[in-house]
Q: What sequence folds into this?
């Protein structure tokens, strides 16, 4: 016979509804025939269904709503009955003859509603009587629903200002008194629920209570709707009375919900003017109440209020809202020694948001908040826990949203809060800071600030104590370091002196970053420095000729050392690229020795560190490309460098790579805009050598795989020939081109060669180009004329 | 048997009527056979005036030894059924012995009759007022006709009417203080009061107020006490906590109450009590009974 509880409940509800409907049916019949006696009898029987104790609040509500609908019909009937001559006073007595209290009181409230409407008695008297009589229901759920019914039917009948029920005797004071009393009684019932029943059902009870809380809260809502409650009345009567009830009920759930309710239903303006009273209640609440959430909602509301219009700001100043809130938070934290650190942080973070909104000009306030927060954090060690860290990030991000980092850096307590973060959070925070800078395009233009900033984001810059790096996700790490790199790019000052200082500061910080970070940060710093170099390069020599001043030379020295760190990591390829970049910059500054030094470094790296053949290919092309553009070198230096480069090219592992590097080297001897570098013979030598290598490559391929492989290399060399031919290299003649064309044609038709559509297309395009040039006519056309494709 | 009944039918019909019968208030009266009839209402020291009509059944003559009318106030105790104790007995001779041939009307009058007691229909006792017309005959049974009427006496509101206030309880378990605004109520009165919970350590389920009538009849060892609960009125639903006060408002009009009767002719008493009952979750009942005095005031309606 032990059925599932839920099932049982469904059954009871169904039975309740059936009983209710049956009696409602008879009641309707009585109403239709104007039979008052039967109407009362059946309505009372109908309402008896509400006497059940078996339903959970949720199900009870369902039953209640049905009864509620029926009672509306009854109310209409009562109204008609009075119009037909039945005295409302008699009716008011008649319904009280019902023997069971619950139906009696529902009927009484229903008639009471008609009574007030009839205006035969002052509304306040009827209301007072009703709210008094309802005391008879001490059962929490039934009492709450009954009183909620009372609140519902009386809502539009309160003697509010401007209401038709306002009279000499009835004032808004009575309306307030009524609602407050109903509220108080309902809250008592609601709180009592917690203490009734078995201890093991606590959870269930709390769930039921939370289902019922809106019934209680509705009273506060009604209060907030009473027009007649002005600030004075709110301050003197409403708020103190409500708070008294909230504080005295000593119930965690009620205190939390009701405080929140108060904050949500009454106007912000009132809150602002009664901050003392309102905040005074918080420390008196039970130590387990989640004050932080409530208080932060209050601050959030006030912040929004402040943001809504500039006109209200003076009010905030006038009532010293910040000081009061700050004070209250301090007291709450004191009163709740068990409050987790998360709560503390939430509170301070709300307060910070508040002050940032309301007093954006008072940086000291924000600093005060952070200071108080530091005080609370001290002695707690590093913060842990997901939520806590998240919250503290929010706390620290708030000033960044409002101000730029430059202003935020002025908050002396800001870095002190950061100290309490664990490594992970520190990084998150650093990222947030960088993002804020990037979003706002903040210019951080002094070395001091850069110093401070890097101190803040040091979580990203270097490994902090005890950090375990292997756990870091590779992508995240890249993301972080890229953002640091971007940040470095953002640091700028037009004054070279200061900029140089900034660079030095950044360098100082990033050099400690370790092998994993340097490849990200160093290039950024190098380019930032090179930017400065370019800037200086455009300027005349320092007119004052001061020794101290920043010169490109000085920067290059610094750069040399900086890049060197990369080669130690080792990241030779990156270092090589940077050396070449520096060399090019030095070239533009006409600093031959510097450029030569950089090249030397690059070559050393190439020889000693770069062993991977693929990397070698890339590197050699970079070297060739850069060297080609250098104009600062004298013949000797240039010869040395080109010679070396050609040598490297020829020593590459794979034949095609060799071939390509060698023909690229040809450009080193022929620079269009440099008349002293036009050595046609050596160009030809390079190309011929490339041809030889290409041949060798084919043979190797033939030997190894049975076919001669692609003719691409030949076509590429042909293109080089054409280039130099066009540029007027006297050593490149038609015959050479002609023979090369034929060679390629033959190769392509040979059986041993593999089919390579790309090579075919490439060759076809090349031939078309020759044709095109021929047709152009003029000097070029003439030049090409002899070539037969 | 019908003819037999016909044979023993009285040879005349007797009608008794009151002089102001049309205007006089009629109230319901429960007869001994359980039927309710309407009866004229009188009060103490009223003149009871009317007439008796005797109408012989057509053509028959009624020979008699005299006609009289009696006004009787009687108490009947049910353990001694049929034995009426007359506390009031007045006689008027209506006719000297003779013969009646046709309808004859006899006016009668009892002036300022002492009727100190009210008509009452209880569980074990009945107090009634009756007019009895007797046509005395020789050798054959007298012809008798009765006419009941009801007496109700009104009293002015008492000059002293203290409230009933009392603190009761079970030690360390339940302490309440209750108060009824008055100790004397008229029949259409309202009981106003409240119950204040000083200490609640038991889980109460509900609380009700009962109106009980205690009728005691006889005297000495032959006393019979009958208690009826006339009203059960729920005052509270659920379990209150310390400090709660629960209002009482009980309208008496829906209940059939009588005034309190104290020692009517040493035969019976009717007393009323308010019984406050608290029921706990295990259906144990805790109660406290208080006597209240009921009285009747003259209704204006």
A:
């Amino acid at each position: 016979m032990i059925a599932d509880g839920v099932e049982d409940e469904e059954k009871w509800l169904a039975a309740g509804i059936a009983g209710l409907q049956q009696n409602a049916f008879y009641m309707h019949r009585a109403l239709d025939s104007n039979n008052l006696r039967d109407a009362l009898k059946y309505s009372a029987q109908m309402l008896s269904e509400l006497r059940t104790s078996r339903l959970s609040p949720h199900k009870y509500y369902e039953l209640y709503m049905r009864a509620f609908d029926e009672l509306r019909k009854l109310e209409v009937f009562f109204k008609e009955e009075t119009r037909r001559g039945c005295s409302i006073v008699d009716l008011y007595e008649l319904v009280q003859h019902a023997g069971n209290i619950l139906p009696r009181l529902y009927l009484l409230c229903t008639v009471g509603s008609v009574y007030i409407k009839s205006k035969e008695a002052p509304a306040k008297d009827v209301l007072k009587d009703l709210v008094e009589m309802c005391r008879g229901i001490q059962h929490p759920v039934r009492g709450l629903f009954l009183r909620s019914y009372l609140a519902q039917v009386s809502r539009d009948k309160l003697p509010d200002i401007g209401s038709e029920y306002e009279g000499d005797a009835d004032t808004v004071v009575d309306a307030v008194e009524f609602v407050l009393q109903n509220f108080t009684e309902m809250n008592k019932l609601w709180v009592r629920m917690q203490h009734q029943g078995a201890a093991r059902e606590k959870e269930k009870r709390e769930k039921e209570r939370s289902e019922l809380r809106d019934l209680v809260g509705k009273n506060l809502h009604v209060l907030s709707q009473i027009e007649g409650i002005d600030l004075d009345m709110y301050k003197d009567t409403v708020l103190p009375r409500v708070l008294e009830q909230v504080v005295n009920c000593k119930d965690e759930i009620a205190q939390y919900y009701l405080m929140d309710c108060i904050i949500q239903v009454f106007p912000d303006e009132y809150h602002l003017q009664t901050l003392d009273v309102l905040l005074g209640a918080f420390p008196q609440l039970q130590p387990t109440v989640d004050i932080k959430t409530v208080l932060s909602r209050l601050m959030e509301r006030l912040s929004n209020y402040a943001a809504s219009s500039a006109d209200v700001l003076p009010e905030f100043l006038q009532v010293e809202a910040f000081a009061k809130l700050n004070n209250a938070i301090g007291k709450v934290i004191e009163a709740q020694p068990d409050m987790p650190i998360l709560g503390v942080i939430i509170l301070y973070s709300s307060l910070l948001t508040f002050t940032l909104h309301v007093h954006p000009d008072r940086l000291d306030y924000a600093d005060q908040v952070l200071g108080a927060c530091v005080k609370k954090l001290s002695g707690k060690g590093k913060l842990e826990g997901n939520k806590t860290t998240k919250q503290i990030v929010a706390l620290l991000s708030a000033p960044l949203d409002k101000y730029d980092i430059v202003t935020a850096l002025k908050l002396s307590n800001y870095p002190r809060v950061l100290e309490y973060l664990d490594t992970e959070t520190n990084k998150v925070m650093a990222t947030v800071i960088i993002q804020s800078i990037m979003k706002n395009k903040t210019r951080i233009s002094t070395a001091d600030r850069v110093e401070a900033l890097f101190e803040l984001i040091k979580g990203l810059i270097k490994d902090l104590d005890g950090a375990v790096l292997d756990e870091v996700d590779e992508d995240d790490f890249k993301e972080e370091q890229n953002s640091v790199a971007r940040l470095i790019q953002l640091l700028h000052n037009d004054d070279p002196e200061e900029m140089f200082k900034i660079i030095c500061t950044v360098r100082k910080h990033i050099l400690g970053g370790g092998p994993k970070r340097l490849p990200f940060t160093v290039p950024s710093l190098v380019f930032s420095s090179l930017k400065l170099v370019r800037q200086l390069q455009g300027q005349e020599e320092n007119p004052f000729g001061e020794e101290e001043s920043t010169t490109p030379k000085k920067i290059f020295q610094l750069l040399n050392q900086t890049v060197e760190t990369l080669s130690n990591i080792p990241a030779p390829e990156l270092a090589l690229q940077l050396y070449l970049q520096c060399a090019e910059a030095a070239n533009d500054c006409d600093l031959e020795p510097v450029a030569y030094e950089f090249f030397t470094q690059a070559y050393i790296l190439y020889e000693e560190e770069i062993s991977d053949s693929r990397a070698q290919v890339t590197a050699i092309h970079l070297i060739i490309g850069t060297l080609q553009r250098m104009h600062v070198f004298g013949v000797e230096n240039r010869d040395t460098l080109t010679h070396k480069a050609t040598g490297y090219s020829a020593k590459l592992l794979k034949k095609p790579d060799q071939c390509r590097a060698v023909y690229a080297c040809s450009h080193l001897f022929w620079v269009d805009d440099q008349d002293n570098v036009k050595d046609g013979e050596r160009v030809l030598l390079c190309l011929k050598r490339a041809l030889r290598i290409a041949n060798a490559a084919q043979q190797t391929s033939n030997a190894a795989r049975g076919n001669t492989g692609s003719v691409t290399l030949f076509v590429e060399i042909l293109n080089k020939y054409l280039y130099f031919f066009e540029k007027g290299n006297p050593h490149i003649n038609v015959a050479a081109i002609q023979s090369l064309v034929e060679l390629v044609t033959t190769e392509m038709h040979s059986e041993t060669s593999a089919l390579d559509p790309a090579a075919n297309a490439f060759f076809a395009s090349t031939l078309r180009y020759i044709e095109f040039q021929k047709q152009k006519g003029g000097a070029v056309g003439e030049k090409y004329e002899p070539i037969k494709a | 048997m019908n003819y037999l009944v016909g044979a023993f039918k009285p040879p005349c019909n007797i009608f008794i009527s009151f002089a102001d019968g049309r205007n006089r208030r009629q109230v319901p009266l429960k007869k001994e056979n359980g039927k309710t009839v309407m009866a004229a209402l009188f009060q103490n020291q009223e003149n009871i005036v009317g007439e008796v009509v005797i109408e012989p059944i057509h053509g028959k003559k009624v020979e008699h030894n005299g006609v009289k009318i009696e006004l009787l106030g009687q108490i009947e105790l049910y353990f001694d059924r049929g034995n009426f104790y007359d506390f009031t007995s007045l006689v008027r001779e209506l006719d000297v012995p003779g013969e009646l041939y046709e309808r004859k009307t006899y006016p009668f009058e009892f002036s300022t009759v002492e009727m100190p007691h009210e008509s009452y229909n209880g569980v074990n006792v009945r107090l009634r007022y009756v007019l009895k017309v007797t046509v005395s005959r020789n050798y054959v049974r007298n012809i008798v006709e009765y006419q009941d009427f009801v007496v109700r006496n009104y009293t002015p509101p008492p000059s002293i009417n203290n409230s009933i206030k009392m603190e009761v309880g079970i030690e360390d378990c339940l302490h309440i203080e209750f108060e009824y605004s008055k100790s004397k109520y008229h029949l259409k009165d309202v009981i106003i009061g409240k119950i204040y919970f000083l200490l609640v350590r038991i889980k109460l389920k509900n609380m009700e107020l009962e109106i009980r009538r205690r009728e005691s009849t006889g005297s000495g060892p032959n006393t019979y006490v009958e208690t009826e609960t006339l009203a059960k009125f729920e005052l509270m639903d659920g379990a209150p906590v310390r400090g709660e006060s629960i209002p009482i408002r009980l309208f008496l009009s829906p209940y059939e109450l009588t005034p309190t009767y104290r020692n009517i002719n040493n035969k019976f008493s009717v007393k009323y009590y308010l019984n406050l009952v608290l029921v706990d979750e295990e259906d144990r009942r805790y109660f406290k009974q208080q006597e209240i005095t009921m009285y009747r005031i003259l209704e204006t309606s």
Q: What stands out?
A: The interface with chain B takes residues 51, 93, 96-97, 99-102, 104, 132-133, 135-140, 142-143, 192, 196 of chain A (CB under 8 Å). The first helix of chain A runs from residue 5 to 32. The CA atoms of residues 698 and 704 of chain A lie 10 Å apart.
